[in-house]
Amino acid sequence: MGELTLGVFPSLVGSMSLDFSFKIAEAAVAKGHKVNMWLSGNAVMMAKKGQKAFKDYSHNEKKMKELIGKGMEITVCEACAEARGYHKEDTPEGMKRASMDWYLAKTVKTDRLFHIGGE
Amino acid sequence: MGELTLGVFPSLVGSMSLDFSFKIAEAAVAKGHKVNMWLSGNAVMMAKKGQKAFKDYSHNEKKMKELIGKGMEITVCEACAEARGYHKEDTPEGMKRASMDWYLAKTVKTDRLFHIGGE
Amino acid sequence: MKLAVFLSDWRRTEDSFERIKADKMGVVLVGNGIYHAVVKENGKDSPVLSKAGASFYVLSDDLETRGYTAAQVNSKVKVIGYGDIVDLIMNDYEKTAWL
Amino acid sequence: MKLAVFLSDWRRTEDSFERIKADKMGVVLVGNGIYHAVVKENGKDSPVLSKAGASFYVLSDDLETRGYTAAQVNSKVKVIGYGDIVDLIMNDYEKTAWL
Amino acid sequence: MGAVKLLFVVQRPPYKSENPRLALTHAIASQTAEIYMDDGDSVVPIIAFVGDGVLNAVKDQQAMKIYGVTSTEDHIKNSLLIDMPVWVCKEDMQRLGLKEDQMITEAEDRGAELRTKFVSFAEIQKEMEAVQHLLFF
Amino acid sequence: MGAVKLLFVVQRPPYKSENPRLALTHAIASQTAEIYMDDGDSVVPIIAFVGDGVLNAVKDQQAMKIYGVTSTEDHIKNSLLIDMPVWVCKEDMQRLGLKEDQMITEAEDRGAELRTKFVSFAEIQKEMEAVQHLLFF
Prior knowledge:
The complex is a heterohexamer, with two copies of chain A, two copies of chain C and two copies of chain E.
Chain A: E1 3-8, H1 17-30, E2 34-39, H2 61-69, E3 73-77, H3 78-83, E4 96-98, H4 101-109, E5 112-116
Parallel strand pairs in A: 1-2, 1-5, 2-3, 3-4
Chain C: E1 2-7, H1 16-19, E2 24-29, H2 35-38, E3 55-59, H3 60-65, E4 77-80, H4 82-92, E5 95-98
Chain E: E1 3-10, H1 19-28, E2 42-49, H2 63-67, H3 72-81, E3 86-89, H4 90-95, E4 117-119, H5 121-130, E5 133-136
Parallel strand pairs in E: 1-2, 1-5, 2-3, 3-4
Helix pairs in contact in E: 1-3
């Protein structure tokens, strides 16, 4: 089994790219891989707890918590979060906050990097 | 003098479209027009107070407050805000929350509608 | 109709611009749309500037943000500011379209 | 290199895809990239499918989300699931590029 | 002012962005806008899918089953239910190889009487000229 | 693992999205990544601007003066200051009519010794093959 690091930057909220990222993470964890996830740019929207689960919107909080429970490390870009007004107390349980160097460091030992950085 | 209603939906945070919208509103107010602004989709990011003013990020809160002081009506899509975890207590002072029908109703009496809805 | 069209992208993902007709059309280049006013890809003007009968405008603030100046702007295009855009919307045109 | 390329858009705004070379290349169509597997614009295959030497994959979940089924997929393209994508990344290719 | 006509134009495919969905939900909101308006005023929306936007009107979208998110199809059917005209550009369907039987044509299961109208771009152009305001998504 | 090489590739113009900026700030963060790494490990980033991404490297960007936001130029100069290689694709400059004197070539005012390198796509391709991981923006 290997280690997969996902860097998730989707610029478009409502783009389903976050949903895609969590489904990939879920499938990788199910196959026994160690998964790390870095959320940056607009993907830090996951760092605000208390999102109302409307049917019209993706809602990944539940899946994220399950994956954390199964050992996925998930860290959010602290500056990106603060710039959007998401403070420490807004962070969902189990999610870490760090600077960008956390993501860079993960690239050293990971077997694969899947950087989702496009539009 | 006329009435201008801006509908602001920029899907891309970091796209400078929000900055553009506030600059247009400012220029219209300076010319004596009545300005209404509707924030929907990802533009509801303005509905979270306490955004840290990093130099790397657009920061429109100050300009928004000045424009509200000069009579601009600014209303944010309530459902879009709740879906992102922005609650009533997160709303900056002077900003209203309403459903989408507020925007539709504004189109009836406004002289011009400037709907910024693209990517 | 009198229509003010706004283009904010360089690589466009719609074709409405080519298809819409208006008795009077103003094309306002803002955001990354400013590249249509200053970049000659392979030595050629942007196809946007060939829209028949249209008047072209570019926002100076967005030119300068991206490192370009009025001196580099295509002669078909008039350089304007935010106040001018407000006047175009309120006085010269009746409808707007942000494509 | 062994490279897995991901396309998530229908109207693309980059040209890296045409330029990148790889000894072994997998092209995975996800999100709105699935339209390259099912839409024949003006009766023609998407130019994406003419990338020489590449293997093509499309994510079934994203097909079905958009109202398409495996039966409509171009014969050059293999329909796969999320687990298959993980296997492609971890086993078949060494690097990834989300264009 | 009386009845103010609005044309919502969706130019891009679904799901990549929230915009096609927002076009539909905003247009549907015209139904409840009267609480903010004077007596006798109303807004009358039409939604038109043009360019790649016609891909929003492909039927059998499984967004809810797969991602737990309301499909664009669901919103289009609700639009028909409230008698809001839904127009889809014929030339773009042809260009993208879409036949009418692949498209959302009705919402009879919900009790809708109105059906999708497949129109030429020329008809949409005419409507652009007729309405008070344009909203491009 | 020793030194792990990373190639950051920026393919689209600045300001429309946060991505070109994030590419630069993430690449620069390699400087402080050692706190999370074992002794002897390091990440060695290169940032390459290709396609319309070369528009990020046009000089005299006034984003701070006009919009109060750090320019992409500022981040590119900081990259040179920390000796991070900044590559700009020559063929794309030519295609878009960009001459070297319009581009950010150095950051001497900040004390940077490294200069922008104008390279062919073939060189970037070669680097794609040489690095451990690719990060496309």
